[in-house]
Amino acid sequence: MRPNLSSPIAECFLPIACCLSLIAYCLLPLSASEPDRLAVYAPHVSYTLSVADLDGRQYVGIFELLEPLTTPDLKVVGAKWRLRVPDPKALNKTIDAEFEEGSATAKVRGQKIALSGPARRENQRLMLPLHGIGGVLIPLLGSDLVFHETSRRLFLGGTAEPVSTELRKGAPSTLALHFSAAVSPNINSDGNSLKLFFTRDPVISFGESEVLNDKLFSSSNYAEGNGTATITINGTSPLLAKFADDGKTILISAAPAPPPAPSAATASPSGGQQPQAQSATTTSVAEPPTEGNSPVAPRSPRSPGFLVVVDPGHGGTETGARIAPNLSEKDITLSLARALREQLQSRHIAVVLLRDSDIDLSLDQRAVLANLDRPAIFISLHAGPGTILRVYTPALPVATDTAPDRNAFLPWQSAQAAFTSDSTSLASAAAEAIGKRQIVVQSRPAFLQPLQSIAAPAIAVEAPADNHGLKIPEQQIAAALAEAVAARKSSLGGAQ
After folding, report:
1. pLDDT by residue (tens digit) across 54-85?
2. Chain segment 187-244, per-residue pLDDT in tens
3. For 252, phi and psi rounded to 5 degrees?
4. Which of 32, 161, 260, 295 has the most CB atoms around it within 10 Å of its CB?
């Protein structure tokens, strides 16, 4: 039986001030001190498994390791485990293996194989030592195998693919990273460095460091660890990455320079009201623990400013709507989010994606991560069958006659109540910008999470799709949303 990994749902009116434990719980799977894992790459599937430390040795569940690759049958008789898998080279035939609890000797295809440690039983699972696991896998799967044991990355069937770099000199230069297949890394900007984290992609490099000797790019570094490959590009100024060639190329260039900060003498918006300070609306969101955990792409609570958080719906095992046999909603939303990021950055608007790769994020995790970023705007992206593009505003479960104080502690499940007016205005602006492009659009409230727990103006956008993908070009949708966001920023006096 598989462990239940679902997190408990927060109580309806749990004060955000008391959400430290929820934050710590939601971030636990994504923490900097995350558990050891093994990444497995095969020609048709990539996945990760947890690694257990038993008596100073690293172990992995053999059934969980084989299940995505074949159809294993594992039975236990006393202290012995009998494993059977289909023979990949002979139809209607099987391969048998036998293991005994506490024994470091196994039998595969009738041949004895020495394990690096005794087979173990843990929580009704057969655990085998990770060191030397190839001695079991190769005869069972009939496949060649390359194991980067130190970093726990296992490549089957020749899947390891080296990355190649191309420095395109110019003013400024562009660095192109070329891959043999489409990749989906998690991308994180850290000062003048750009880090790309590859967990599901079998990316390797034959060199650890390269000096680039360019005015913009100083060096590139490659490292592996805990089932992940990391490419770090170091520059002399902030860098920006975008995808090309259907995801087979990542182009890295200089990030757009931010516009000059508004002077103190900047006129206030019409109506005589001063620009709304973002810090006044975000202090009610609980800060993360000073000791503990941080997300996959490490981020600290951001200083107040105009930041847009874009949430590509679904991801990982949560595929969303199945638009076509080989096309899921999660893939469409990620592509649209990346297009929106480019449109916002071209307008000098700071933006962060809650996920920049195919990872699992619960609804609570999305709300927590978004609120920690203290956004000026939150946009959730979805796709589904239909012909009309829809813009949703949060419909809260409880209506009150008194507007909540944004400076006070906000209830977790209805934190959005302090921002409903701003969310409605944002939705109207988005619908107007979309309509200008001759796109049929509807705007309506809906009970959607994580919108109800977002402490910022928030909307959800659902784009129509069919077997060929989005029915409306994603660049049109992204440009319209970016236009609406830019208008919102302008109405606040260009707050940074």
Report:
1. 999 999 999 999 999 999 999 999 899 999 99
2. 887 789 999 999 889 999 988 899 998 999 999 999 999 999 999 999 999 888 888 8
3. -115, 130
4. 295
Pick from 349, 129, 169: nearest CA to 256: 349
Query: CA-CA distance, 359 to 187, in Å (whole number)?
Result: 13
pLDDT at 8: 35
Q: Is 133 exposed, middle or buried (0-12, 13-18, 19+ CB in 10 A)?
A: buried
- 14: phi then psi, degrees, rounded to nearest 5: -65, 120
Indicate the domain borders of the chain.
9-33+292-496, 52-151
Residue range 9-33+292-496 in CATH 3.50.50.60: no
Structure tokens at 177: 């990273």
Give the pLDDT of residue 496: 47
Expressed in angstroms, the distance from the first to the final Cα of the chain is: 51
Cβ atoms of 461 and 389 within 8 Å: the answer is yes
Residues 274, 280, 284, CA angle at the centre, nearest 5°? 160
CA atoms within 13 A on the CB side of 174: 11
Which letter, b or e, does each residue of 331-345 get, where b requires 16 or more Cβ atoms within 10 Å of its Cβ? bbbbbbbbbbbbbbb
- The predicted pLDDT at position 284 comes to 44
Calculate the average pLDDT of the chain. Answer: 81
E-state strands within 315-429 = 322-324, 327-328, 350-353, 377-385, 389-394
- Does 334 have pLDDT greater than 60? yes
Q: Superfamily assignment of 52-151 in CATH?
A: Copper amine oxidase-like, N-terminal domain (3.30.457.10)
C-alpha to C-alpha distance for 16 and 22, rounded to whole angstroms: 9
